[in-house]
């Protein structure tokens, strides 16, 4: 079983149990990036997380975006990189860039 299947299975179980869930997926990377495209993280409205989109360096910002997506239903495409003024703030000082798509499950 791949990590993506594991994250999606966990997210489905949380959703079935009545939790609101959002899925974050790395869609593109450039240069030194902590996780490859296709990496996923599930986030619940109560703050549970499974999987990883960055090895920890931007996951707090992605979790915040996931909570907004759960509230509004609007998907988001997040862009993190060294040219982004938030890069240092969220810890992406490794010189890479990545895009993360966030969508509400269900």
Note down, in words, how this protein is organized.
The chain has 106 residues and is an alpha+beta fold. It has one domain (3-105). Helix content is 30%, strand content 31%. It has 3 helices and 5 strands, in the order αβββαβαβ. It has helices at residues 3-16, 59-72, 87-90; strands spanning 21-30, 40-44, 49-51, 76-81, 97-105. The chain has a 5-stranded antiparallel sheet, with helices on both faces. Strand 2 (40-44) and strand 3 form a beta hairpin. It starts with a helix and ends with a strand. The model has no long low-confidence stretch (mean pLDDT 85).
Layout of strands and helices, then pairs:
Blueprint: H1 3-16, E1 21-30, E2 40-44, E3 49-51, H2 59-72, E4 76-81, H3 87-90, E5 97-105
Antiparallel strand pairs: 1-2, 1-5, 2-3, 4-5
């Amino acid at each position: 079983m791949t990590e993506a299947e594991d994250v999606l299975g966990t997210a489905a179980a949380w959703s079935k149990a009545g939790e609101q869930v959002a899925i974050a997926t790395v869609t593109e990377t450039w240069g030194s990036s902590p996780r490859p495209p296709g990496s996923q993280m599930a986030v619940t409205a109560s703050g549970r997380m499974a999987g990883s989109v960055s090895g920890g360096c931007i996951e707090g910002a992605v979790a915040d975006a996931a909570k907004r997506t759960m509230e509004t239903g609007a998907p988001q495409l997040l862009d993190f990189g060294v040219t982004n003024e938030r890069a240092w703030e969220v810890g992406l000082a490794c010189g890479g860039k990545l895009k993360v798509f966030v969508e509400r499950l269900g």
